[in-house]
């Protein structure tokens, strides 16, 4: 129930942000459609298990997550420049590799964030998740060095660990 | 004065974004195998679109339009790794083998 | 400068179309078309600014949604051969 209400609130804010109309009739119609979508989502049974862990959110997680996003943006720009230089240098330096990275001890949410961050960074790509192992494809071996050292994994773990409980 | 600074900032952002988009497209054409090409599209879908939209946000300033631009940006950031991952996984399951530099030969396109 | 960016992105789209035509495997084509869709979103946003009608951004948002759904749907059809598949039964029984 709590997740459905959160979904309704989110949809209403989203509608308000996108529409730009604030007369009475249109507001009512917009809220009605948000309510309708929330009811359908509840009936489809897709809201309540684990989509958005609303009750676990706190200000501290938002802060740590924001810091993580800043760091991730820097990494994305750096590796984009590396891949762009590879493209422009006649393709001779392309050395694809597939390696396995351990994600032992991470919970599901951390695995999702970690695998998505690896894929979002140009030059590295999560091909498959197999229990505690990620198959990572890279376009050149040295782009994987920060991942092998565990920089990103440690930062992902730090997002939740300060809040004590794990998701 | 401040307008000129914003104008220059906008043009620099747009220029960098256009450059990354072009280089990413060139990479899709030039890289030797399918799994490498996914990395080239990753450039367009992260840095290219981010810089171009940042330039547009600088252009409009605070308004509903820049909020919409931000929403599109966040949406693309969420969906692009998902579709790249789905592509790679489906290709692996369909039997496509990634080229590796150890025993691999370089195919022509 | 916005118009110049628009032209640059369109040149990129032409390069991607070339890859979509010559792509040896079907996945190359899907990849090229998916990235083509992302570039279409950029073009829609830029075109809205060139013609000074920011309403185009709504279309760009919807296009981004459609692009994602189309890619996932095509890949799902390719992997399971059935769009209504829930992905819960093991793959060996299907393929």
Could you name the key traits of this structure?
heterotrimer; A: 167 residues; mainly alpha; 2 domains; 6 helices; 58% helix; disordered C terminus; B: 109 residues; 3 helices; 0% strand
Would you kindly provide a written description of the structure presented here, covering whatever features stand out?
The complex is a heterotrimer of chains A (167), B (109) and C (95). With 167 residues, chain A is mainly alpha-helical. Chain A contains 6 helices and 3 strands, in the order H-H-H-E-H-E-E-H-H. Chain A is 58% helix and 11% strand. In chain A, a hairpin with a 2-residue loop joins strand 2 and strand 3 (133-138). The radius of gyration of chain A is 21 Å and the shape is elongated. Mean pLDDT of chain A is 80; it is low at 162-167. In chain B, 79% of the residues lie in helices and 0% in strands. The longest helix of chain B is centred in the last third of the chain and has 30 residues, at 64-93. Chain C has helices at 2-22, 26-50, 56-80. In chain C, helix 1 runs antiparallel to helix 2 and helix 2 (26-50) runs antiparallel to helix 3 (56-80). Classes of the chains: A mainly alpha (167), B mainly alpha (109), C mainly alpha (95). At the B-C interface, helix 1, helix 2 and helix 3 of B face helix 1, helix 2 and helix 3 of C.
**What is the straight-line distance between the termini of chain C?**
51 Å
Q: Which structural class do you get from the secondary structure elements of chain C?
A: mainly alpha
The number of helical elements of chain C comes to 3
| Broad shape of chain C | flat
Q: Largest inter-chain interface?
A: B-C, 47 and 46 residues
Low-confidence stretches of chain C: none
Query: What's the number of helices of chain A?
Result: 6
Topology of helices and strands:
The complex is a heterotrimer of chains A (167), B (109) and C (95).
Chain A: H1 2-19, H2 24-43, H3 59-88, E1 97-102, H4 108-120, E2 124-130, E3 133-138, H5 145-149, H6 151-161
Antiparallel strand pairs in A: 1-3, 2-3
Chain B: H1 2-30, H2 34-60, H3 64-93
Helix pairs in contact in B: 1-2, 2-3
Chain C: H1 2-22, H2 26-50, H3 56-80
Helix pairs in contact in C: 1-2, 2-3
Structure, briefly:
Chain A is mainly alpha-helical. Chain A is built from six helices and three strands, in the order αααβαββαα.
């Amino acid at each position: 129930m709590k997740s459905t209400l959160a979904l309704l609130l989110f949809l209403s804010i989203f509608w308000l942000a996108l529409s730009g109309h604030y007369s009475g009739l249109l507001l009512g119609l917009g809220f009605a459609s948000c309510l309708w979508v929330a009811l359908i989502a509840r009936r489809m049974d897709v809201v309540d298990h684990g989509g958005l862990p609303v009750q676990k959110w706190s200000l501290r997680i938002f802060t740590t997550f924001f810091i993580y996003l800043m760091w991730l943006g820097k990494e994305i720009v750096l590796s984009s420049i590396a891949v762009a230089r590879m493209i422009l240098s006649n393709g001779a330096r392309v050395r694809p590799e597939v390696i396995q990275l351990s994600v032992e001890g991470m919970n599901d949410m951390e695995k999702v964030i970690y695998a998505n961050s690896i894929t979002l960074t140009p030059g590295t790509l999560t091909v498959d998740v197999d229990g505690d192992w990620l198959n990572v494809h890279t376009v050149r071996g040295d782009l994987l060095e920060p991942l092998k050292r565990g920089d990103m994994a440690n930062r992902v773990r730090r997002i939740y660990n300060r809040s004590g409980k794990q998701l | 004065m401040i307008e000129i600074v914003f104008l220059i900032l906008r043009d620099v952002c747009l220029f960098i974004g256009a450059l990354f988009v072009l280089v990413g497209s060139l990479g899709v054409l030039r890289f030797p195998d399918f799994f490498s090409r996914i990395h080239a599209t990753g450039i367009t879908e992260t840095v290219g679109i981010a810089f171009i939209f940042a330039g547009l946000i600088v252009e409009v300033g605070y308004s509903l339009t820049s909020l919409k631009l931000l929403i599109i940006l966040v949406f693309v950031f969420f969906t692009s790794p998902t579709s790249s991952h789905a592509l790679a996984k489906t290709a692996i399951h369909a039997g496509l083998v990634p080229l590796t530099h150890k025993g691999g030969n370089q195919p022509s396109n | 400068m916005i118009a110049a960016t628009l032209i640059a992105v369109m040149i990129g789209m032409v390069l991607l179309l070339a890859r979509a035509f010559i792509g040896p495997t079907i996945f190359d084509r899907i990849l090229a078309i998916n990235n083509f869709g992302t570039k279409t979103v950029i073009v829609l946003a830029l075109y809205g600014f060139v013609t000074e009608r920011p309403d185009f951004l709504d279309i760009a948002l919807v296009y981004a949604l459609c692009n994602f759904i189309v890619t996932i749907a095509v890949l799902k059809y390719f992997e399971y051969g059935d769009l209504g598949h829930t992905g819960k039964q093991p793959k060996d029984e299907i393929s």
